[in-house]
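#struct-pred

JT: dropping the chains for the assembly here, can someone run the whole complex?
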Amino acid sequence: MIKSMRRIFFIYKRYWGRLLLAQVLVLISAVTTISFASLNARLVNEGITMGNMEVILNTGMNMFLLALISGLCLAGAAYISVFFAQGTGYMIRTILYRKIQSFSFANYDRFPTSALMVRLNADVINVQNAMLYTTLLTLYAPFMLLVTFVLTMMDAPSLIWILVLMVAVLLTVLMLLVFQIFKAYDERQKRLDDLNNTMQENLAGMRVVKAFVREDYEVERFKKRADALRQPAYAAAFRVAFLTPAMTGIAQLAIALALVVGGSQILQGTGLDVGTLVAFSHYLTLAVAPLAMMAVMMPFLMRGNASAERILEVFDSEPLVQDRELAQALDPEEVQGRIAFENVSFAFRRPDGELAPPVLKNINLTIEPGQQVGILGATGAGKSALVNLIPRFYDVTEGRITLDGVDVRDIPQDNLRQIVGIALQEAVLFKGDVRFNLKFGKPAVEDDVMFEAARAADSYGFVMNLPERWEAPVSQRGYNFSGGQRQRLSINRTLTAKPKVLILDDSTSALDASTEGRVQVAIPAFTNNVTTLYIAQRISAVIDLDKIYLLENGEIIAEGNHEELLATNPLYQEIYESQLGKGVTAGLEVEEAA
Amino acid sequence: MTTTAETKRRKKWALKRPEKAIHTPDDTSQIVRRLLSYMAGGELRSKFTFAMVLRLIALMGETALPALIGLAINVFSVPGGSIAELNRLVILIVTAGLFYLGVSFVADRMWGDLATRASYNLQTHMYTHMQTLSLPFFDSQSRGELMSRLTNDSEVISLFYESAVTDIIRSMLQIVLTFLVIVFIDWRLTIVAILIVPVMLLVMNVANRISSPAFKKLQEDLSELSGFQEETFSGNKVIISNRRHKWTDERNVDLAVQAYDSGSKAFFTSLLQYPLTQALTYLQIVIVLMVGGFMVINGRIDLGTVIAFSMYVGLLAKPVASISNLISTALNGVAGARRVFNIIDEVPTVKDAPDATDYEFKGGHIQCTEVDFSYISGRKILRQNTFEVHPGDAIGICGPTGAGKSTLINILTRYYDIDSGTILIDGQDLTKLTQESLRKQVGVVLQEAFLFTDTVMNNLKYAREGATDEECIEAAKEANAHDFIMNLPQGYDTMLTERGASLSQGQRQMITIARAMIAQPKLLILDEATSNVDTRTEKLIQEGLKKLMAGKTSFSIAHRLATIRQSAKIMVLNGGEIVEYAPHDDLMAAKGFYYALYMSQFKGKAPNNAEVTDMGFIST
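RK: done, full complex below.
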């Protein structure tokens, strides 16, 4: 049990001293609390019953001291457990994050963002709670019970069965209630997620709702889910509320039992005295709180364990692309930029480690230094997979890719990615300002380079129109910019780093044809003709390049420039007609006729 | 997920609708009353009263216990007590205890029921009202933010009902009852026994003043941290390709440290409340025992009373200690409710006129005269547009980004009201028609192919209440969707995951076309999006669209000019104005705006090597 939680404990190797201190404090607090109750007996027996004011005063002062010590020790223990709980959170958040940062694309395919976020959010909090309760309570409840037990054995052994009975009944009732509460909470959470998804979908599809005039249907659907939520919410709420009466009620019944049994003994003169009986009934109430805490702790611990397991699952994954031992860095200044694919095949790996059907088959191509090349194909043809192999976002399954004759797997990743720059399909920006984002690939670069790159990427104009210009704020993921602006900033960012091989992965798809044209003319001028690969679905994006590779189902089925392909390849002709229209000349003939 | 289209809509609105003016804080009691009306109003009133009475009875049982125990102790603490007397008292104690347990059980069930009912009532009220609001309300705010606010608000409101209301009532009743009982037993010892109350209130208030904002700070820090982490995970490719792991790691550590600090403060101050309450309660018990002890020696009271008082101290301390936390829970609920009530009080911006009539279809003749429109007053998006569409004509709309294409569609469907000018549909003024009758006749296929998490069949049936399976399958066939639907694991009964993600973009689009067919609209509006679809799928989609449009007046926004070449007329927008409006061939011959737009796709590689002149596109 709790195997995963125990593994998490490795974090604390350096802090076992504090852990020990916390336990000592908890022990002292338990002993002082019980002693308080036992002094209570003395105050009654030797003070009040005997009429001794001095004893009352002294005992009272001692009790006061004990209360203070107990409080201080508990506060100290609380301080240390908070340190452990928050420390755990901090450690997981940083160590796990660092681990995730070392991941390759393929690792991310296995753990999507949402899965990672669950581990870093909800799971961390679950482990934190479990840690808080374990450090604070694992020993507190047993200590309290033990001390109570020992004192009762010494003073009133004839009443001990009442204590045992009460603990047994309380534990059963509490465990039952608490587990039902947790079950109801889990159910409630599930239904709450359902309800929230319904609302989310409704907001996202508001135009569809209004277009088909289905508001009433939406309300009915929501009401059904809200009603489904009500059941577990009610089951949890009333049991939580009933916990307090259950605990006090049972304790009071145990006291009644003690009174009738102990009272008869006193009246029969068996040696039991009033003070001891009062102290015993005090012990009974004292045993309730730690038992309740223990009952509450168990589900937290189990939840924490399940979360720890999920956290360790990520932690135990290794990055799938790693530097080879003998990898040699290339001098970026010396790189020519000749890219060659030699018999390259590539398949993604399924979660079970098996290879999926290949997405690239026997790719052979050579891109000469300074060439402008287009790769054209439909969604799913394998275009992105092909270029992702060059900067080693994934490694080839078969064959090899060389940069200036060197296998890319023999180049350190960091060095390789400094040479190969890529503007990705999804233009993600980060929270910060425009300058920070544009210099993301090369923070030390001079502003002038960034400005030039901005002119080439056609972002200079709209950035200069912003009130704060290069200091203009960028919100999370860059959503305060339009799709087209984000794409231009993304290209801008890649250009600013001045790569020796430039890849534009469908990164102009949101631009209108005229803007796209301007960008494509400006890029070679800015980069001074470095090797450039354009990935596109639209013919207009590759129409004027040196060479176009037509990719279908993971294979290159044709290559050549626009004119050659238009003349010889039926698929290319089909795409051309569909995208640019059969017989553009139709309108022009009218003009000629006129 | 925020979409580009959403960002676009939001930006247009950014200036017009600043955050709603926040109510002044003195509306708290008013909001509390309004919140309580969902729990105790209408048919729930009698149930609420009854639950209150039950709670009072249960607490009376609990409050009687220490006094009875004190009496029992008296029986054996003074010489000459009888076992029969002891037994009689113990029976009373057991009865009171069981009574307390039993009645509490019933009362807690009732309160749980009332609290969850109240949450349900408020939630559904808000949701039902939200469905009546016009699109400007939804477009003017980020969907993600609205969603997270609503989720969070309903959570704090349910805590208001389930914890704050229930426990404040319980605590108040308990304090009053206990006080009355101890005053009745001995008023002198009562004065000693309640010394702790003001101290406790003060200490807890101070602790709460520290921990409550600390938790708020912790929430903010955690959401900043997870916001950052999420951003870097979804942008991981950019980070990997730019080799910026060091930066992300440093930033992450900074944010995690921040969360550690505020988390430590929040949890420690909140945990501290337990030892504090305990120490203060014990202190009070000691004082009662000491003073009570002296009084016993002086013969003023008996031992049982002193012991009973020491128990009453515990009974009094617990609710007093919890009041401060409960009030802060309640105030959180009030803050959440304030935002929810703002939505409930929001009035739809597009309203049916008092004398509105149902739209009567007479072929689909549309006349727009001098139509002006702006999202932000003073910033016209459409200006002085006058045009006419003849019944059955297919109209293509094109122009650079930001020219007003989508806006034109928004006003033709009356999602937004125009600033000035008139729109006549079949001779009827658009503003004098009921929205429902209009929307039932106007079919819309949107750029974002939105499908619900439901089966394919239910998504199709969404179009029209009472549509049959046969009708839906027929429409799917027409839209070329039938074949791939049959290839899905459960055919038409296949569940579509969130937002139809298990289908390709093209397949989703075909389902939305079939859905539009099932609604049997008389007019059509298409915001076509085929940019991520391969050539063959696009052909299938175009075929479906052609069947849908046959013989109907339609407007299609074109993202690729080839798709609107066959339109009866093409409307070219630039900077909010219609600059050209004619068939394709005429526009090409005119060598104007449309011609330039068209030719720019070829980058000088057009069949006839036609030259392109810069026409001054206004794009954003």
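JT: nice. The radius of gyration of chain A is 36 Å. Chain A has three domains: 1-143+300-319, 157-271, 332-593.
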